[in-house]
Amino acid sequence: AGKTWRLSEGGTELQAEALMATYPDDRTPGPSFTYYETRVSAKRAFGPVALTGTAAFVPKGSAGSGRGGRLALEATYDPAPGWTLRG
User: Fold this and answer.
1) pLDDT per residue over 9-47, tens digit each?
2) Residues 6 or more apart from 76 whose CB is under 8 A from it?
């Protein structure tokens, strides 16, 4: 589930998401593979260039792996229709 807010004419976008991964047939003994994740991101476009920052948090990872998280920065460039360069 998630929500996206567009703050200007396609230039700035904020996003909040919540994810749950569950496996109904998981009957193995021990820790479950089910986990939850929350994620927020902000994107700003400047013509064919877009910059995106994302932060994600997992309070209790699958199979007893504990807490986790991720921070990511991404730049994209669309030089022509149908082509995107990412870094």
Assistant:
1) 768 999 999 998 887 777 777 777 788 899 999 999 998
2) 49, 50, 52, 84, 85, 86, 87
Report in angstroms the alpha-carbon separations of 60 from 21, 54, 65, 74. Answer: 12, 19, 7, 26
- Given its phi and psi angles, is residue 5 left (phi above 0), alpha (psi -120 to 50 degrees) or beta? beta
Q: Which two tokens stand for residue 22?
A: 């569950």
The pTM (predicted TM-score) of the whole model is: 0.75
Burial class from Cβ neighbours inside 10 Å (0-12, 13-18, 19+) for residue 30 reads exposed
Between CA 31 and CA 29 the distance in angstroms is 7
Cβ-based neighbour number of residue 86 at 10 Å? 9
